Amino acid sequence: MAEKKTKKATAKKETKKETTAQASSFAPESKTARIGVFACHCGTNIAGSIDIEAVQNYAKTLPNVAFVDNYQYMCSTPGQKKIEDAIKEHNLTGVVVAACSPRLHEPTFRTATKEGGLNPFRFEMANIREQNSWVHMHDREGATDKAKDAVRIAVAKAALLQDLIPKKVPVEKAAMVVGAGVAGMQAALDLANAGIKTYLIEKSPTIGGRMSQLDKTFPTLDCSQCILTPKMVDVGRNPNIQLMTCAEVEQVEGYIGNFDITVRRKARGVMTPAEAEAKGIVGGGCNGCGDCEAVCPVIKPNPFEMNMKPRKAIYIYHPQVVPLIYTIDWDSCIKCGLCVTACGEKKAIDLEMQDELVKLKVGTAILATGYELFPIEKKDEWGYKKYENVVTSLEFERLICASGPTGGHLVRPSDGKTPKKVAFLLCAGSRDNTGIGKPYCSRFCCMYSIKHAHQIIEKIPGVQPYIFYMDIRSFGKMYEEFYYRIQDEGAKFIRGRVSNVLEDADTKNLYVMADDTLLDRPMKLEVDMVVLAAAVQPTGGVDTVRKMFGVSCSQDGWMLEAHPKLNPCGTTTAGVYLAGVCQGPKDIPDTVAQAEGAASAASIPIHMGEVELEPYFAQCIEEKCAGCGMCVNLCPYSALSLVEGEGGKKVMKVTEAKCKGCGTCGGFCPGGAIWMQHFATPQIVAQIDAFLTGGEE
Amino acid sequence: MAEEFQPKILGIICNWCSYAGADLAGSARTQYPPDIRIVRVMCTGRVDPLFILKAFTDGADGVLVSGCHFGDCHYLEGNYKAAKRMFILKSMIKNIGLEDKRLRMTFVSASEGAKWAKVVEDVVKTIHELGPNPITQLTK
Ligand SMILES: Cc1cc2nc3c(=O)[nH]c(=O)nc-3n(C[C@H](O)[C@H](O)[C@H](O)COP(=O)(O)OP(=O)(O)OC[C@H]3O[C@@H](n4cnc5c(N)ncnc54)[C@H](O)[C@@H]3O)c2cc1C
Ligand code: SF4
Ligand code: SF4
Hints:
heterodimer; A: 697 residues; alpha/beta; five-stranded parallel β-sheet; 19 helices; globular; disordered N terminus; B: 140 residues; binds flavin-adenine dinucleotide; binds iron/sulfur cluster
């Protein structure tokens, strides 16, 4: 019996050791805590609105506080050194820094805490800048009181903090890029060239994105396709890039290092040579000859040409597509089978092809889903879709492009005549606070409209471009010079947002109504054609992708970076990065630069081979667990299960690698049996206690 | 002499949306009243109703729980669960004689600094209108 007991006791000890390998104990001791409090001035950012000395003196009076100091910039090297030295000199067991947001500098101070010889998780931050001095700039007393409370709350938690060991997980040596515009392509190439297997997922049948629709690019005026197609070809043949077109992400599971992603490969209806070979069709598969297209009887508008050119139900967008494989548009295909016959021995076409789900495992992912034009017909006053000779900037790009629907001859849609007077209306829907448009600047419209003016001057003798603008924003390298150059070429710039566009029903000419705000007079200008620099907005349907990857968006729907200045490529989901316009409007140089940044960021964990996960996961206090299993269904990540414990008792078990530490289970367990590391119930309760019952000086 | 009522308002907010939104209000220097103290959790799903009951019994005049918008939770659905719990909790605190307006659940995203300031302003105003937590008056 006695023997059994000891055995049981050791067994119990062992299980306990196993489950609590992280936290040293479920009952942290605050009595022996020795906390150091460091208050930061942040120059005048904090000290300007908060009496740091008062906060420091107050901190001295708090229970468990063994040492107090302050410094101009705690995040600087000398500031961090203060923490390291104080830990050693004063035998501290915990550190509180009252400074900026933990979302900014928690990692910095955790490192300092570690350098001082403590476990880095024995650090707690009191946010007295973002959530105090900066929002109560004119209430010194209120802000100082709040800072004292914040320090007291932080000290209460710090006294109960425990040593935690971050979990190390291996990182899959592969990456995913979603969206194959110039951003996604660049990111994929960089990753691939760094030796990383990269899956490039593109929903349309070809890569290239919007840039392949452009004619020339400002300010250098290189031909867009000429600089893009070589890149497209590189992407297509890079052995490290597995390109998946007509594909969309369907499900994302896992976490940094170990994302399990399900991709839906839409049935293209046409097989690549490799796919044909896999099916035993020797020498078969699509070679892009176009015999099928020639016989297809169905004619549809081509969205690549902004619907100004026809395509068949079996089609390619343009001759340079990568991969050069035909695609069937199932919505318009009548399954007549003519194409199958025309394809003949190549046997590339399969009218019964089905979607396929592919499971991929990657370590990191980059989102690069780009943009579309704001539906400018919503701004009725500009007459788009109402008057034939009002076109959007992207339609203009196709109309002026040598490979476009008119062979590069700019013509009026109404009568095919060459326009002599063309008005470019900037900020069509951008910088618009009416609630119908977009409040932000779309950033590249000024420059591309100037480019457009140049393009018509170059092509149409005697043409007169007019540019109606609010401000010209030529912010980039060589951009201002480009602006002057086009002014010299004769483009007329008129400052004043257009209020209305009207049409002469007979001639189909347009009247642009505006206020010339430089001459301070209203004006009415008759032109042959109007080009709208429509605002841009995130690609439709991209919200689903964003949410699957756990990425937030700004108020305007653009994907949200982790920090606008210090982490513009990262997101708040570890291992997920952003590139290109999906993060906010930017031109090609900025897009490419960000893509390279994102690729570099995404390659770091992969090259490290393993990453540390914050050890905020749940633990089960088996003695308290009633085995009710109610938490099991609450966990969104299926991290919990009921297992048989000692003596047949059912207890909850956490699969730590699956737990993301949200604490949903911990907020629910009726028995208080769940220990949320670093956000444990006693720690939160101590914070609440400190706020409400402590604090008398 | 009647002392001016200085409300004790506890804010329990999630790390990813509301805490980030509150930080943004700071970076944008949006001003709001200082009568709130923040406890940060990773997700509003972590908020045990007992925390809130405890806060009220210990004398909080108001409690604000704020998380991500529905569909935008960093952990998929913690905010739905929190919202459900807060809903039930509201009827509970009503039963014990507290105004349910003292408990507020809001949704502020990382990009809504201005909204955060508005929310706090509004909560502070509500609590000022309601006056001190009656439980503290009883135990005084
Ligand atoms: C009229 C006009 C003229 C311009 N002229 C210039 C210029 O002269 N110089 C310049 O520097 N910039 C110019 N720009 C800006 C330029 O177009 C952008 O900077 C650039 O195209 C951004 O590339 P991107 O890869 O971020 O986005 P995109 O080109 O939009 O690529 C995004 C890709 O992602 C794919 N995708 C979207 N959602 C999904 C999904 N859910 N799953 C899979 N794939 C998805 C899309 O199909 C697309 O292929 C111009 C823009 C316009 C509108
Ligand atoms: S809810 Fe609590 S008691 Fe029930 S199984 Fe989960 S951990 Fe155990
Ligand atoms: S904290 Fe609980 S609910 Fe959240 S992921 Fe971990 S086990 Fe699941």
